[in-house]
Design a protein that fits this description.
Length: 500
Amino acid sequence: MAGKPSPRTRSRSSSPIFLVTLSLLALSILFFLFSLSPRTLPSDAFPTLKPETSFVASLEHFLVHQAHKSSQAARLVRGTDDVVTDLDDSMYGIESKRVIGDPYFPVGMPIRVYVYEMPSKFTYDLLWLFRNTYRDTSNLTSNGSPVHRLIEQHSIDYWLWADLIAPESERLLKSVVRVDRQEEADLFYIPFFTTISFFLLEKQQCKALYRDALNWVTDQPAWKRSGGRDHILPVHHPWSFKSVRKFMKNAIWLLPDMDSTGNWYKPGQVFLEKDLILPYVPNLDLCDAKCLEESYSKRTTLLFFRGRLKRNAGGKIRAKLVAELSGARDVIIEEGTAGEGGKEAAQNGMRRSIFCLNPAGDTPSSARLFDAIVSGCIPVIVSDELELPFEGILDYRKIALFVSSSDAVQPGWLLTFLKTVSPAHIREMQQNVAKHARHFLYSSPAQPLGAEDLVWRMMAGKLVSIKLHTRRSQRVVKQSRSLCTCDCQRANMTSPGRFF
């Protein structure tokens, strides 16, 4: 019949469709089988280790798995004139090749850090001492705070060191790399646990250890070459390392704040241009995204504060604030310390509050600020002299309210101010606080954009100035009026040369 295809023609026209269908079916079967088989991914595609943010738990793992790897004798190289000159020539030669000799030199390379292998009495022995005694909670400071809790919140020296000396296969940070040769280093890290030694050793024993550490470090060729300007020294507790600080004032100090009152640091010792502010290790657990979502409706307290109500120096503002705020509606102001019971009370209080009061203590800073941030509570900062960590990277105006001391103590002023903040602005700030919490968490392994990572990102901004002042100090004529040091008069405080 005209127009009707023959069986052979029909078979020919349908065969391509059949083949395509068969091919798709085969591909589906292969994909299914492939999905069942194990796949090989790059080792750094996904972190295999869950970040540990507990100092005690991380230290336990570190001492078991890392200490035996570094039990060999510490390397001590005497800083004779010839050795110092040879090291300087090598470092300058390598730096010149990197920057001048290579027109395609990548600007964003990671910072290269040489970590000193100091005798164990400065490092592992002190960590073991903490580990074996931290359960002794009867050991308190004069203000009633547990000594070991203070050590934990100032344990930045442990977190940075543990990351630097970890096997490269276990590290996640790309902002810093450890080098084995001093001549390749941009900076030198001194792994001395100043806070642990201050709190756990007898006074004279501690001072003797400080002197030994001073002599050991300042005898190194790299120190003699730069006068310590490219050396990093963790002194995160304001009482630690006090007896020998003046001999290491050129080094880059890792600090909790600047304390411009002069009560803890001598004039000429600490400056933002030279040193770096690091956050305290939070005392409280992180309130994660789920916790924050569940806590929004439970935050019925307008303003919360728990801590020592009477402090010295700049902390005298606390007594005035207590007198002004006590008994106010939707405000909780209570005495407390940092023990286990205090931790639970502070955590519960912060997670039920919209704003958390952060007044100055004996120093302008306290761990309370970072406790509030990880708890999702908006900090209200009443500390006129406070310097903040990572402020070159982070905008604190998005996560905290800043109130002058003179305004805060005026009758009714602070509560009136807080009540004028709109619900929409509060919710926005709470979301910002949640996003920023990661920047203040120390962990093992150290996380990208965590506290350790931001330390090195901030340090990168100082590096050119450090190298400039190191080179300049090597050629300026001694006793020259242009040779400015940290002992310069206050009249010259704006001179860039004096900081190094």
